[in-house]
Amino acid sequence: MAEQEIEDFEADSVSDTAYMLNHVHPPPYSIDDQPWPLEARSMCEFWGWAFLVTVFNFVLFLLNFVLMATVFCIVLLPTIVVVYFGFQCHSRVIHSDAYYCKTILDDNSSSALIILGFVLMSPLIVIAMVTYCSVARRLRLFLCFVPYTRAVYKGMKWTGHDHPSGCCCCGKEWDSNLKAWV
């Protein structure tokens, strides 16, 4: 009797495995909202949706890059100005004929400005990274990227999370208790 039970168990486990191999599904993003099984798109639809997903993700990447460049330029502006004046007035680099280079800054003070600018750069880069990450997190920009499974299967939502407005930066209340240290 024990051998019969073992054979039945092995037959059941093989059939479950075969069922799982024959019915491949994408990972569940939200089990409550996804109809099972999802229907695969035709090849023409797939390429069209893949192109749209690629364009959307690329535009979102450019938006993130512009935001990051803006934040870094604003935060690093003091360092940029100090290093610029240091290099502009030093006699071995540019040696400008500007009034402030002739009257106020000599080679020693220009060298001091260059050194001060590069010393200030490290903490300001950290401040710029923290500022960019907090702004991007507040706007939830990283949640807006669309996975390519949306191009493969029909019936999946466009965004990865529930929003009444459908916008990535709007929707659920901001969790003020959630903190992250950078």
TrEMBL record:
Keywords: Membrane, Transmembrane, Transmembrane helix
Chief localization: membrane
Record's keyword annotation contains Transmembrane helix: yes
UniProt-listed InterPro entries: TMEM88
Membrane topology field: Multi-pass membrane protein
GO cellular component: plasma membrane
Compartments it resides in: Membrane
Keyword Mitochondrion in annotation: no
TM segment ranges: 46-63, 70-87, 112-133
GO molecular function, one term: PDZ domain binding
Domain of life, source organism: Eukaryota
Protein family according to the UniProt entry: Belongs to the TMEM88 family.
Protein name (Swiss-Prot/TrEMBL): Transmembrane protein 88
Organism in which the protein naturally occurs: Scyliorhinus torazame
